[in-house]
Amino acid sequence: MEVTILGHGSLMSGRGLAFSGTFAVRRAGIVALADCRRGFAKLSMYGNRFATDVELARLPLQGRRVSPHTDQADGTETLALSVSLDDGYRLMKREGYQPDAARQLARLGQRQDLGLADFLWRVQTEAGHDVVGYRRRLFELTGYTSPHYIPHPVRIDGDETALIFVAPGFDATGSEAVISVRQQTGVRGLMSAGQTWQRKPNDEQLSYMVSCLLGGVHGLRIDDLLPRPGDDARLITALCERLRPEITVELSRFRETVGLSAEQYGRAFGEPETLLRRSGLYDFVAGNLSPPA
């Protein structure tokens, strides 16, 4: 069995994914999410930096696959990776959700002839697509919840279900005994890149931002994660200096990390120059920056 994971931060790039080793990706692409926003919000488990999160206007979360060749879709764009359950468990562990709990949920789904994502969709449906009720039900089923990220189901194009990691804020983790990291650190809303830099003007935050923005090499629109006009010029300069050399190696590093040949990558995403321009990364770094080969 397999599961499709939607990455909204460092999981969008080979640089970020390589932190967890290599993967045998069976399908890759871009999924645009409706009715949600993305920004920086959750203090990382791995260093003195804020990681990305998505805030949901409502449940259920809906998305659609988009073509980077022709489609400028509305919504928050994520990287969709279809992997084996074992690789999915590795990604969940990385995001702070215990693989043993995910395995319990997968076994419960198998008893109903459902994959993990489809089972969580059923759980959420039975909870009336209420985010707090859904998280409480997961805790009831497993005796576990996470203060970091919790997997939430996303219905793609009406007939496919994927999982995305959402950090609980002040709206509960599913257990009164487990307080979310966002609540512990007092982060109620999403922060822009500039606001994040004001709180964490350090190399770890800069490096993490680079891993997120490199998703733009693969055509994902990352304008919501870019610094805005008026933000600290030192942040913009530092990001551009880091991104220039990283962009040149990101494409090959991504293919090696996810196990896609050049031909497979081309079918899934398209031409590098088109992707870089579509995402907004080309314009941000420099108008004369050569796209990756």
What is the topological layout?
Blueprint: E1 2-7, H1 14-17, E2 27-33, E3 36-43, E4 50-56, E5 61-66, E6 76-84, H2 85-94, H3 99-111, H4 116-126, H5 131-142, E7 150-156, E8 160-166, H6 181-185, H7 193-199, H8 203-213, H9 233-258, H10 262-268, H11 272-279, H12 281-285
Helix pairs in contact: 2-3, 3-4, 4-5, 8-9
Which characteristics define this entry?
single chain; Hypothetical upf0131 protein ytfp; 2 domains; two-stranded antiparallel ribbon; 12 helices; 8 strands; 41% helix; globular
Can you walk me through this structure?
This protein is of the alpha+beta class. The chain has two domains: about 1-185, Roll (Hypothetical upf0131 protein ytfp), CATH 3.10.490; about 195-285, no CATH class. Helices cover about 40% and strands about 20% of the residues. The chain has twelve helices and eight strands. The protein has helices at about 15, 85-95, 100-110, 115-125, 130-140, 180-185, 195-200, 205-215, 235-260, 260-270, 270-280, 280-285, and strands at about 1-5, 25-35, 35-45, 50-55, 60-65, 75-85, 150-155, 160-165. The strands form two sheets. A six-stranded mixed barrel has the order 1-6-2-5-7-8. α2 packs antiparallel against α3 (about 100-110), α3 crosses α4 (about 115-125) and α4 (about 115-125) packs across α5 (about 130-140). The two termini are about 35 Å apart. Mean pLDDT is about 95; it is low at about 285-293.
